[in-house]
Amino acid sequence: MERGVAAGALRPGRHLPPLRELATTLGVNPNTVAAAYRTLRERGVIETDGRRGSRVRSRPATTARGSLRVEVPAGVRDVSEGNPDPALLPPLGEAFAAVARRNDRRPGMYGEAPLDEEFGRLARAAFDADGVPAGPVGVASGSLDAVERVLVARLRPGDAVAVEDPGWGSLLDLVPALGLRPVPVAVDDEGPLPGEVERAVRQDGARAVIVTDRAQNPTGACVTRTRARELRRVLAAHPGVLLIEDDHGHGIVAEPLHPLADGTGHWVLVRSVAKAYGPDLRIAAFTGDAETVDRVLGRQRLGPGWVSRLLQGAVAHLWAAGAVDPVVVARSYGERRDGLVRALARRGVEAHGREGMNVWVPVADETGAVAGLLAAGWAVAPGARFRMDTGPAVRLTVSGLALPDIEPLAETVARVAGPATARSYG
User: Fold this and answer.
1) What string of pLDDT tens digits covers the 426 residues of the chain?
2) Angle, CA of 380, 173 and 213, to the nearest 5°
3) Contact 391, 419 (CB under 8 A)
4) Do the Cβ atoms of 222 and 215 come closer than 8 Å?
5) DSSP helix/strand/coil, 236
6) How far is CA 267 from CA 144, 186, 191, 204, 227, in A?
7) Closest residue by Cα to residue 129 from 247, 8, 290, 16
8) How far apart are CA 422 and CA 53, in angstroms?
9) I want to staple 369 with a disulfide (CB 3.0 to 4.6 A). Which of 73, 323, 400, 417 is the partner?
10) DSSP 3-state assignment of 319?
11) How many CB atoms lie within 10 A of CB 345?
12) Are 140 and 305 in contact (CB under 8 A)?
């Protein structure tokens, strides 16, 4: 089967014979076919969807959505990458110098605690300040690393995972790459729709739900107090479902955090420093219920062992020094993001961006919009990088824009893309 998929003889989406039918055809024990199907699921070749049976994946699990991009020619403004504004990132020299001096006095060695004491103390204090339930603290190499470790610790290949649609493209790649089945959950400006989460858990059998708390990528959605209360009610009715919260917007948003974990059985909240302090730091703090965190840390010890305590110490130094002012950063992104949303609205173009650095624009023809904007001097991210069932759209990142850029960009988007023919969001 794997060779058939690679050669194109088994096309994406093709349904495979039921276990017993194939066993009869081949003259083998049904357990042999079941084991083969299980291996194919784990290798990301096929997916199983309950009573609807097994089929070849519609997209190979190893094909990164990040490859769905356009080459940016010279002279074209790039608003596609999703990077933070370098001018808003803090200088790192003093933080690393301080950690290096400490390491010179006492070099880090094998066998030491994997969590830098000051990093753990400050991370837990920040969680407490935002009302995150009590739990042990761990550290991973970025949000995606933490999410992957949690999923592997608690789920098995073939399990369903509820993911936001549209949502973070890397996460939408990761879930099937782990042999898990992504179940799309629609979102609006206030986060995942409670009815959609209920449907994903009750009807589609989702064993885990992943929610972006603030500055959702690509839409900028933020979970409000009311929406959080509704989502907690849904999750409380399914205590066996794993909850993963991604708070990557910490440090760049004005909206308060409304954690969802209260009353759930197994949960983790992940908070990276990428957007506020720099993507190359590769650090994310996480907390959760004791059993889940212990499983993650135990497996981590058998792999990388720990995340560099030099990096942890540098981030702790930045936190303690107040190197980033979230109010200033949120205001800077907000002026550009809100300005673009308003400018598009004046031209009759629907756009979304409640917090963070991205604006999501539904369009009637995604390919035409991307190509037309590129020809007009603007490179945008195709919505296909971020969506499953959601309609066509493009994502614009405001980090590299100055305020005088807003009106020309909005005018070009309105002229090239125009208003979407139907709502394709929420």
Assistant:
1) 878 877 778 888 888 999 889 999 999 999 999 889 887 876 667 877 766 788 887 655 555 666 666 678 888 999 999 999 999 999 999 999 999 999 999 999 999 999 999 999 999 999 999 999 999 999 999 999 999 999 999 999 889 999 999 999 999 999 999 989 999 999 999 999 999 999 999 999 999 999 999 999 999 999 999 999 999 999 999 999 999 999 999 999 999 999 999 878 899 999 999 999 999 999 999 999 999 999 999 999 999 999 999 999 999 999 999 999 999 999 999 999 999 999 999 999 999 999 999 999 999 999 899 999 999 999 999 999 999 999 999 999 999 999 999 999 999 999 998 776 544 566
2) 75
3) no
4) yes
5) helix
6) 16, 21, 18, 20, 18
7) 247
8) 33
9) 417
10) helix
11) 12
12) no
How many residues are listed for the chain in this entry? 426
Q: Six-digit token pair at 314? A: 């540098």
| Torsion on CA atoms 223, 333, 173, 388, rounded to nearest 10 | 60
Name the token pair of 346: 């004046």
Query: Which ranges of 130-193 does DSSP label H, i.e. alpha helix?
Result: 143-154, 169-177
Distances (CA, A) of 176 to 54, 371, 417: 14, 29, 32
- The answer to whether the CB of 340 falls within 8 A of the CB of 398 is yes
CA distances from 348 to 5, 283, 387, 419 (A): 45, 41, 23, 6
Angle at which helix 309-321 crosses helix 117-129, to 10 degrees, equals 50
